[in-house]
């Protein structure tokens, strides 16, 4: 897609300084800008690059003052960083504004969908599926029977949404994500063999949730696994059966959450965190990366370690962990002195 400076200024309500007809077709970092690219300057540390960049257009704050000649056309805005983010959103909206049903694809006779849907090739919509307006379903997506999906939802290529799942409005499900797989429910018998416990519940994902690539959310054994409004899930996360994640909690990649654990609102959970089952984690909890959680956590705690302890306690203890060989050596020497004196 090609945009002129005057078009971009119109989108951002900006002021042009330079050639308003100059065209751009790509984005770039300011230090890597080439002809035909658009960039921005918001961090003062990068100001030096505006004098050497080959980018055709640069978005800057209105109060920016050039100290020497520029070859790039400027678009002055109130906040360059926010303006560039707005432009990225607009670009994605235009790029992803696909509609229509590609073939081959399968739509059950009982499935329903709203206006402006895009359904990519080789996708499957099962019986009684109900999809809202402006949905974008990319190629090779499987949507099982009795699934409900709200308005303005994007499901990227290769995602799988099992039967009975419910997804709210304005959600994004990235490639390879699996929503509604069976929970890990098995019971041993007297022979030491395992029998499967039927997983008869579902998954409920509320509005404005992002599910990262390769993430799996298991259906409940009974009831629902629930991902509340505004939750952000990174790539390759495992969420087990009957877990509930509170509103606006963000979880980084490779975290695993065992069955029936409840996580509160506005939590931040780092990468590779392991959380045991049947726990309660309060609101506004911070869990540092690679922590192992085996106990309930109160509201507002920040913890680290495996097993996890208070964050400040962990930092204090770590000083001693590093010096443990020296401390042990001193203890041995003291023990020898005491023994000799005896």
Description:
The radius of gyration is 27 Å and the shape is flat. The protein has a domain at 3-95: 3-Layer(aba) Sandwich (Udp-n-acetylmuramoylalanyl-d-glutamate--2,6- Diaminopimelate Ligase, Chain: A, domain 1), CATH 3.40.1390.10. The longest helix has 18 residues, at 324-341. The chain is α/β, with parallel strands linked by helices. It has a 12-stranded mixed sheet. A 10-stranded parallel sheet has the order 9-12-15-18-21-26-29-32-35-38, with no helix packed on it. It is built from 4 helices and 40 strands. The model has no long low-confidence stretch (mean pLDDT 94).
For the record, what CATH class of one domain applies? Answer: Alpha Beta
Q: Which CATH architecture of one domain would you pick?
A: 3-Layer(aba) Sandwich
The H-level CATH homologous superfamily of one domain, spelled out, is MurE/MurF, N-terminal domain
Number of helices: 4
| Shape, per Cα inertia axes | flat
For the largest sheet, list the strands in their spatial order: 8-11-14-17-20-25-28-31-34-37-39-40
Mean pLDDT: 94
Strand fraction equals 25-35%
| Largest sheet features | 12 strands, mixed
Which keywords apply here?
about 350 residues, alpha/beta, Udp-n-acetylmuramoylalanyl-d-glutamate--2,6- Diaminopimelate Ligase, Chain: A, domain 1, twelve-stranded mixed sheet, ten-stranded parallel sheet, 4 helices, about 15% helix, flat, UDP-3-O-acylglucosamine N-acyltransferase
């Amino acid at each position: 897609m090609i945009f002129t400076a005057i078009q971009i200024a119109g989108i951002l309500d900006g002021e042009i300084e330079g050639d308003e007809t100059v065209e751009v077709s790509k984005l770039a970092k300011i230090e890597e800008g080439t002809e035909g690219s658009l960039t921005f300057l918001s961090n003062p540390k990068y100001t030096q690059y505006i004098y050497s960049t080959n980018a055709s257009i640069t978005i800057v704050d209105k109060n920016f003052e050039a100290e020497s000649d520029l070859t790039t056309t400027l678009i002055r805005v109130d906040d360059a960083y926010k303006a560039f983010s707005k432009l990225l959103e607009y670009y994605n909206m235009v790029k992803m504004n696909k509609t229509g049903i590609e073939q081959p694809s399968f739509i059950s006779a009982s499935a329903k969908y709203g206006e402006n849907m895009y359904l990519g090739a080789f996708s499957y919509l099962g019986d009684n599926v109900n999809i809202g307006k402006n949905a974008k379903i990319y190629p090779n997506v499987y949507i099982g029977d009795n699934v409900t999906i709200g308005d303005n939802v994007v499901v990227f290529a290769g995602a799988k949404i099992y039967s009975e799942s419910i997804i709210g409005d304005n959600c994004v499900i990235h490639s390879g994500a699996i929503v509604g797989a069976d929970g890990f429910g098995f019971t041993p018998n007297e022979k030491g063999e395992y029998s499967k416990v039927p997983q008869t519940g579902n998954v409920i994902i509320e509005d404005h949730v992002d599910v990262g690539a390769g993430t799996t959310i298991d259906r409940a054994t009974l009831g629902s696994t629930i991902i509340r409004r505004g939750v952000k899930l990174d790539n390759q996360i495992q969420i087990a059966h009957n877990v509930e994640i509170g509103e606006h909690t963000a979880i980084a990649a490779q975290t695993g959450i065992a069955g029936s654990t409840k996580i509160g609102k506005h939590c931040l959970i780092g990468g590779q965190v392991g959380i045991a089952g049947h726990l309660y984690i309060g609101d506004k909890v911070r869990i540092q990366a690679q922590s192992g959680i085996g106990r309930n956590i109160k509201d507002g705690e920040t913890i680290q370690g495996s097993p996890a302890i208070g964050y400040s306690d962990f930092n204090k203890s770590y000083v001693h962990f590093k010096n443990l060989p020296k401390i042990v050596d001193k203890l041995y020497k003291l023990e020898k002195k005491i023994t000799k004196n005896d």
